[in-house]
Amino acid sequence: MKRLLFTVLSLTLCTAGTALAADDTLLSSQDGLAQDDEDGGDEEESLDDVLDDILGSQDTTDSISEERAAVESGDVDDIVGANAEEVLLPDQMRNKRIIKTIQKKNFLKLGRFEMTPNIAFVTNDPFLNRYIVGLGFGYHATEIFEIEGNFGFSPNLGEADWKPLTSQLVNNNHVSPDLSPLTVFGNATFVYAPIYGKVAVGHRIIPFDIFGAFGMGMVLTNDDLEALQQEGDKYAEATANQTHPTTNFGGGLRVVLGESLALRIEGRSLVYIETVSSTTLEMKNNFILQAGVSFFFPGMD
Q1: Is 257 part of any domain?
Q2: One domain for residues 64 and 207
Q3: What is the radius of gyration, based on Cα positions, of the chain?
Q4: Where in the sequence is the domain holding 183, given as residue range(s)?
Q5: Got the DSSP string for the chain?
Q6: pLDDT 10s per residue in the chain (301 long)?
Q7: Of 61, 111, 136, 292, whose Cβ has the fewest other Cβ atoms within 10 Å?
Q8: Beta bridge pairs of residue 250
């Protein structure tokens, strides 16, 4: 009996001890969780600090103040974006510091007509002085592309056109050079002006453009049969006055003087094949240097 009671009492004490141990374990585990939560919060805060150090995070107010100070002192040259200007600079300071480096184009050719009276001179004729008065008329389909027609007239002044070398050859040496001056020409030309710029002259900004031209046309020539000593020669008389198809190419410079006025200087080369005395073909190239004043209409809006 005593042994039975001792056994029961031992079992009871073991059971109570086990329960107490379990309670202690539970309490310690709860404290551990709480402690872990606190430690986890500290780890998150420390992780944020590490990320800030790595990414270079800084106070926005301090950053703006420092950048404003840099701009005011001139350490910062360029600011990207209009919003950045509004944040970094007060209105008055921003208005003072903004400098317009690209001005709007104050001269437009698109959709306008250009009329150019001009005077010209044939530069490469070794025997004759050929002075020309002409007129060009064009339409600007775009700012850089123009369709143009031009007309020129050179009066035949006879011996007044001769150069000193020609007078010597004809009158003294009785040698007849090739005297076949152009008198009238007309061309249809495509003008392409890809280069545009401005130049400062005093307090004025003067726009200009550089253009190239290519086209086709006709030219009329008139042989001087007296100087050629071919009067009465039926073959020479048959080809004394000729009309030739010609190419027309060259380029020039247009300097804008106002909204409807420009100065134009250019060189054109007229190349054609001429028949001499009904028997011989000869290629001619007349290089014409001309200057004119262009009038644009209608006016710009």
Answers
A1: yes
A2: no
A3: 47
A4: 113-297
A5: -HHHHHHHHHHHHHHHHHHHHHHHHHHHHHHHHHHHHHHHHHHHHHHHHHHHHHHT---HHHHHHHHHHHHHHT------SHHHHHHHS-HHHHHHH----S-------TT-EEEEEEEEEE-S-SSB--EEEEEEEEEESSSSEEEEEEEEE----GGGGB-HHHHIIIIIS--------EEEEEEEEEEEEEEEEEEEETTEEEEEEEEEEEEEEEEEEE--TTTTT-TT-HHHHHTSEEEEEEEEEEEEEEEEEETTEEEEEEEEEEEEEEEETTTEEEEEEEEEEEEEEEEEES---
A6: 545 555 555 555 555 555 444 455 444 444 444 444 445 445 555 555 655 555 555 455 555 566 555 545 545 444 444 444 445 555 655 555 555 555 567 789 999 999 999 999 999 999 999 999 999 999 999 999 999 999 999 998 888 999 999 989 988 888 888 889 999 999 999 999 999 999 998 888 999 999 999 999 999 999 988 888 888 888 888 899 999 999 999 999 999 999 999 999 999 999 999 998 888 899 999 999 999 999 999 988 7
A7: 61
A8: 213, 268
The tokens of 35 are what? 């402690």
For the chain, the maximum distance between any two Cα atoms, rounded to a whole number of angstroms, is 175
Amino acid letter for position 233: D
Q: Which residue has the tokens 């002075």?
A: 131
Tokens (6 digits) for 260: 């409807």
Residue with tokens 């086209």: 215
178 sits in the region (left: phi over 0; alpha: psi -120 to 50; else beta) called beta
Same domain, 125 and 84: no
Predicted TM-score (pTM) of the model is 0.64
Structure tokens at 129: 């002085």
Exposed, middle or buried by CB within 10 Å (0-12, 13-18, 19+), for 230?
middle
Q: How many domains does the chain have?
A: 2
